[in-house]
Design goal:
The chain is mainly α. The chain has a domain of about 25 residues. It has two helices and no strands. The longest helix is centred in the last third of the chain and has 27 residues. The protein is elongated.
Length: about 80
C-alpha cells in the first residue's frame, strides 16, 4: 500500500515560522554571550567646549531666522 504525503500550505508556513523562530532564539543567545562594550570616560551629559560654542552659534542663527520670519509675516 503506497501513501503519498504532501505538505500543505499551512504546514509549510508553520515550518518556516518555526525555523525562523529557532534562528532568532539562537542569535539572541549569541548576543548575550558577547562581551560588553566599554564606555568612554567622558560623560555624555556634559557638553564639550566645542559643542557649546556651536550651540551658541546655532542659537544666534535661529534668532536671525526668527526675525526674518516675523518680518515676512508682517508683510503678508
Amino acid at each position: 500500500m503506497r501513501t503519498r504525503t504532501t505538505i500543505s500550505g499551512s504546514e509549510l508556513l508553520l515550518s518556516v515560522i518555526a525555523i525562523r523562530l529557532a534562528v532568532l532564539v539562537l542569535v539572541g543567545w549569541g548576543l548575550t554571550l558577547l562581551p560588553r562594550q566599554t564606555h568612554d570616560s567622558e560623560r555624555a551629559c556634559l557638553p564639550s567646549p566645542v559643542t557649546s560654542s556651536e550651540a551658541q552659534a546655532k542659537a544666534v542663527r535661529s534668532q536671525v531666522g526668527d526675525a526674518a520670519f516675523d518680518d515676512m509675516l508682517l508683510h503678508d
